[in-house]
Amino acid sequence: MHYAGNDERLHHLDEMGIDVQLVCPPPPQCYYTIPLDIAVPATKMLNDGIAEFVAKYPDRYVALGGVPMQDGQEAAKELERCMKELKFKGVEVLTSVGSKELSDPAFAPFWKKAEDLGALVLLHPNGFTQGERFTQYYFNNVIGNPLETTMALHYLIFDGVLERHPNLKIFAVHGGGYLGAYSGRIDHAWGARSDSHGSLPKPPTHYLKKIYFDTVVFTPIQLEALVKTFGVDHVVLGTDYPFDMADFDPVEHVVSAGFDASTTAAICGGNAKRILGL
Q1: What is the per-residue pLDDT for 3?
Q2: C-alpha of 22 from chain center
């Protein structure tokens, strides 16, 4: 895969009509599978490198960092450093940590710190964790990535993370996976079955509607459905740049959905400015 240099990257952003890009760690640089005594300094090096990169063009880039999610306390500490020292807008986390879901009690310190600091937490999959059937045709990305995000959102909702932390700012990429297109099923299950109801006092979509979603869904009809389902204020322009699954004409994608001018303006920039405090 070709990775653009900084000047070429800015040229690409100009071609796409992107004024400011949110820079995040690529998933392989979220070091969740190595010992904590290595992961902590490695993650700090990653974040320091991101800070150095965005500082070169502060009018074009803002940043999310990484955290060592093997340990909820260490993740909270690095999140605080990202926000207070490096002046990032939040962090990216993968959709699971080894065999643990993001809703595992081990990560409670991280979620509390994220809510307290008003940090944006971007959820990004790294393929599906049980992808044996997805080995051909790039299915581990094509099918697996949206499925992994769908799983993560289900656990954050049904295990009560969003009930306990109502002010969390969670951003689910790729349009939130498959849940955004089929959210009525979780409310039905919550009402029909005690094992799906759990201890949630409100229907699952009450919490789902707190999530922010990007526009990388590739068809205008799916983008329109996201806006109708979750509200124009919860949909943010996305690119997935510089990867091969990127939308390289993201503004036209929004325009082609036929929204009115105020909706288009909100999705293409206004929402991001508000969420990120720009």
Answers
A1: 44
A2: 11
pTM of the model: 0.93
Cα–Cα distance between 102 and 40 in angstroms, integer?
Answer: 18
Q: Which two tokens stand for residue 240?
A: 């997935």
**What are the pLDDT digits (tens) for 2-11?**
445 667 888 8
**% the chain with pLDDT above 70:** 98
Percent of the chain with pLDDT over 90: 83
Reduced 3-state DSSP string for the chain? CCCCCHHHHHHHHHHHCCCCEEECCCHHHCCCCCCHHHHHHHHHHHHHHHHHHHHCCCCCEEECECCCCCCHHHHHHHHHHHHHCCCCCEEEEECEECCEECCCHHHHHHHHHHHHHCCEEEEECCCCCCCHHHCCCCHHHHCHHHHHHHHHHHHHHHCCHHHHCCCCEEEECHHHCCHHHCCHHHHHHHHHCHHHHCCCCCCHHHHHCCCEEECCCCCHHHHHHHHHHHCHHHEECCCCCCCCCCCCCHHHHHHCCCCCHHHHHHHHHHHHHHHHCC
The pLDDT value given to residue 36: 96
Residue 212 tokens, joined: 């922010």
- Residue 73 burial by CB count (10 A; 0-12/13-18/19+): exposed, middle or buried? middle
Residue whose tokens read 């999530």: 211
